[in-house]
Amino acid sequence: MAGSQHPGAAAAQEPPPPMDERLHEECIGEEHGSRHALGRHRERGGDPERDDGRGADDGSEPGRVHEPADRREPSARQPLLVTADERLLDDLVRLATAVGAELTLASDPGSARAVWTRAPLVLVGADQAAPLARSMPPRRRGVVVVGYNLEQTLDWRRTVQLGADDVVSLPEQEVWLSERLADALEDSGDEGVVVGVIGGRGGAGASTFAAALAITAANSGRNSVLVDADPLGGGLDLVLGAEATGGLRWPDLIASRGRIPAAALRSALPRVHGLALLSYDRGQVRAVPTAAMRAVLGAARRFHHLIVVDLPRHLDEAGEEALRACSSLLLVVPTEIRAAAAAGRVARTVAPHIADIRLVARGPSPAGLAADDMARGLDLPLTGELPPEPGLAAALERGDPPARNRRGPLSTFCTRLLDELGIPRKERR
């Protein structure tokens, strides 16, 4: 009946748990709900041969579309499903329910137009791909065509005209589609920027600079997370004076793979100086699998404006995975001849994994080596010369974070760099 609950959502299903049980227990806490919103609901007239409890012999026309009884406005955060195929509707509602997603349903192109550009994800049934393409809706990202046996049944020319990002065949790709629906719950329309920081030699100050960059971003209203990717670095929580702050560290997450809920990860990590922190501890060194690094960075990008990764000079597999996720790499090098020589080796090592490598020269130079000359010798663009911060070493020993003085040279340098990198300031959920 109009406004009744769809049979595909009759029972709640527990979402697939994250691989890391502690993350699941501490961060999720309860099952996702089983509600789903249908912006429009298909009512079917009675049909003795198809009467399975879902139809109604109330004199209505078979296939007629009615507004739901509660007339709720569809949320811009709900994925949009465009289909008149009830079998497909059942399957997609089941998948959405399993990950706690609510769907807005449109049975034809006309009813889809109202929320076409606002929905975080649009699922187009194969039955509606051609009609939608003919209606010429505005081009947008996040359009997925879904159906059965698509190689034989889909009008591929219309799919191209529609501008679909992906074509998904059920049931073979149910897992992928479930993850895409779950991601839509956390989609803010863009992903965070991952910036790597690496030292040109040991003791270059890369970890301190990485922490300063993340803190400055947080101070300017950007959601930021600092990720420690150096298993032998002693732990970035020490740099921030946060060794006693509760929250998960890398040893708690090494079993993670697949998809981690972004909000769950953020709530589980230590919060210090306005940012989230994922650090190694001082226990036994345990290698972080590439799958865990990929899962963590994927979740972090869905929730934060900026992800700063402190990378080791000797990259393990997880370090390489983190480096490949970076859009830019900042190579921190003291303005010294030997440091420049060592930095050249580091630059050549990382170059196969990332295209955008920028030099951060740390002054002053004991022998008068100019930052511009060092940049030319390394054949790297110079981001700038970082002047010394008075009292920084003593402050770090006391547990005071870098860039605490918002008017100091370190904070000023980082503020300018964040603007150059184009890190947004707008609010994220």
- Helix and strand content put the structural class at alpha/beta
Give the total of domains: 2
Mean pLDDT: 82
Name of the top-level CATH class of the largest domain? Alpha Beta
How many β-strand stretches? Answer: 15
Outline the biggest β-sheet: 8 strands, mixed
What's the CATH architecture name of the largest domain?
A: 3-Layer(aba) Sandwich
Q: How much strand? A: 5-15%
| Adjacency order of strands in the biggest sheet | 10-11-9-12-8-13-14-15
Question: From the alpha-carbon coordinates, what is the Rg to the nearest angstrom?
Answer: 26 Å
Per CATH, what is the topology of the largest domain?
Rossmann fold
CATH superfamily of the largest domain: P-loop containing nucleotide triphosphate hydrolases
Helix content: 25-40%
